[in-house]
Amino acid sequence: MTEMVYGAVPVRVGEPVLPKWWRTLDKWTLACVLALFIIGLLLGLAASVPLAERNGFGNFHYVARQAVFGSVALVAMVVTSMMPPVLVRRLAVLGFVATFVALLLLPFLGTDFGKGATRWYSLGFASVQPSEFLKPGFVVVAAWLLAASQEINGPPGKTLSFALCVTIVLVLALQPDFGQACLVLFGWGVMYFVGGAPMLLLVGMAGAVILSGMFAYANSEHFARRIDGFLNPDVDPTTQMGYATNAIREGGLFGVGVGEGQVKWSLPDAHTDFIIAVAAEEFGLMLVMVVIALYATIVIRSLTRLMRERDPFIRLAGTGLACMFGVQAMINMGVAVRLLPAKGMTLPFVSYGGSSLIAGGIALGMLLAFTRTRPQGGIADYLRGRGRG
Amino acid sequence: MIRTPLRPLARILQARAKGENPDVIERENLRQRHEEMAVKSRQRAEGRLLVLGAFFLCAFFVIGGRMAMMATSEPAEPAVYTAGSMIANQRADITDRQGRILATNFETHSLYAQPPQMIDPIMVAEKLVEIFPDLDKGRLLKDFTGKRKFVWIKKKISPEQKQAVHDIGDPGLLFGPREMRLYPNGRLAAHVLGGAGFGKEGVTAAEVIGVAGVEKQFDAYLRDPANGGTPLQLSLDLTVQAASEQVLYGGMKLMNAKGATSILMDVETGEVISVVSLPDFDPNNRPAPPVSGNDPSVSPLFNRAVQGVYELGSTFKIFTAAQAMELGIAGPNTVIDTRGPLRWGKFSIRDFRFYGNEMPVTKIIVKSSNIGTARLAQQIGVERQRAFLEELGMLEATPFEIVEAQGGKPLLPPNWSELSAMTISYGHGLSTTPMHLAAGYAAIANGGRYVKPTVIKQSGPQAGVRVMSEETAAASRMMLRKVVSEGTASFAEVPGYQVGGKTGTADKPRPQGGYYEDKVIATFASIFPANDPKYALIVTLDEPEISAHGEQRRTAGWTAAPVAAEMIQRVAPLLGLRPHVEPAQVTGITLTSN
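^ inputs. structure came back:
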């Protein structure tokens, strides 16, 4: 009793928010994201000039915009990463519902900016691509469903989340936006894999993919020609791929010099899909390696931290977010080095684009929130004498 | 897996016996199972996350490795872009049917200034005005001394001009390489070619895009690098086109017309061999489009052949006669009542002159009787007439492959009544372009198949839709021949080429309604040689007027027909047609033999 009267210092319940956030945060990932964003701005200084010139703006118009969007994205990321997982889940589910409705309304209210695919809402000063915002929301919802299905007498989460995934993929494919559709499918697949997909199914699926690929190669001339063209070491220098390949070669180890690159004048998507080619040409292999290392660090660190996580929902959602992020970067860079067939996909945090930047910020914010260190009940295990796992 | 029962009966019975709540046991069991499952799934997830991590690590390594391999390999073809040219492909040439150049590319330079680098703006401005008299010195000086860092001066300059500017020697004056479109034949086929201009412009290059005619219609094709610069081969023939233009220009001046157009079409293939619209322009220096509000037909850019929608008058009568014969309503010798005027409500139809109370169909065409044709149309009826004209392509814009052709939509009567049918039968109330007429006459000439007029060289005859029988077409050709040999178009006779055709003189509509008394569109639509037609030729004069035999004459027989005759005389030999020479009279030759 005496302690209660005399010894008590006025303490707040729990730890203050900011110190706790800083203590538990994956600071390396945060640093990597910041580095990527800065590299993105640096590359934007080089890569977006031709676009600005074409559209009659000042040289660094798009860099300024990128900086503004980037700041918003970073703020969104930090704020999201401070939230407890439950709050993240609730907001993400709400956000998912909102963006899904927005996605469905696209054919009626969206614009295609003359590019043939209706993916955007035009807000006058900027355009919004709802599918970018849908991805993190979908990951959280699907993770929630999959996690719930692991409860005894839980809902049939696997079936439900798969149905949801297929619906979204169909809607995206109808736009058409096969890139995003593949990403969503991949995200779900990874979560299902980690959430305990039966081994037999996995083997069967891999076999089916290989068999159908061989079948298509043997029977479809179109498919065979594309694969042959892709395997062919010689590349037509007047195609986009040719320009990108030559840019990487020109750049060599240390690049041709800041602002000296030529590829950005030839490639219409130099500031988005082929920004890595601009990086390779002007700054050389060094910067590209740094970029690759940064992406690898973010993904691997996140996955390692998630391995310790005991809450199935957090584990699955984090996995989905990290893998989607990593795979997007991988596909973008894989296309530039001709490891993958051409597919329009932005390099997260580096490519120009308001929607993808802010959505990326939110997604990484969620990932940071999920990978924060939190008590995992390991001590209780030891106390009960069961040790780890 | 070994399932643990949720309600181990023994424990529950025990608990019941002790009076404890069995639910607690049940919850405990459930919790235990759940924990076991969670542990298991966590272990599995750990392994799989490890797999995923390894996968990503490998993937990033592969990408990095590949990037390193590429970066350290030698650039394969640096020449592709270090040469400084960012125009990846040249615009393909356009040639005539024999491969002669109609449009090609030419290396030139643009001139621009960077005022901050300029040493002596005043001197530069003075010298530039000497070289380019059309530049304004004050304006240049203002640009050079103002805040601008970059000023375009000239988009295209000649090599001499470039040298002269170079000799000024000011570092602020710079040249950018340009590829420009050149039409070496000047005004020739100007309306078909259209013209090209610069699209996106940069300092080191500019994009050449088509702005009109085939240049615009086939812009994507001409620019497509996949075609490897294969020229676009048109159906036009350079020499025929040149001869046609010359004759038509002379005819237009002679007949005091303010505009003229001619179309020469191969009746089997639909290829247009020459198409002229006057006044014309030089596509190398395309004039500015007309200010809106003015009559577009005043502008030389206006293509009368495909954009000029006119009532083409009596030239339509042959379609009525052909349809009547096709439907079995009348034969060439069926006699039709032609007493006039033919009254229909408030409207009465008259003939130019009185030709008699009744005439056979052939004579109706030869004399160009409105009343007779209208009577035929009455028997044909609205629906059938409309369907026939639709088959002949008269109710839609022609498929001719220049962008302007889409604008040549026929003007149909708002309500296709019986009266409309009667006026349309002789070419009033339905306005079409001369190109429509050419296609219609080609159908008669080739034995009854509709061929699409085309500007692209074809490899063989078009298998067009049949619109009338061979017999009908042959009978119609006989009539057309008679129009020339003994009817209104006697001035169109060209010895040896058996021209067949039909004149048409239509009063021009006033913009405010009604028709002018003294302004006409005179058309002569012809086919030659009539016994086995190869070509259809349309000549249309806008507001021709001559005085002959003490009378002001505007009718097509006096104006368009002689121009057409002259044109046939000039182009038939170029087209490789032999004149059909009548065997000479053998009288007067005395055979001397012992």
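The radius of gyration of chain B is 38 Å. The CA atoms of residues 67 and 73 of chain B lie 10 Å apart.
thumbs up if we can close this ticket
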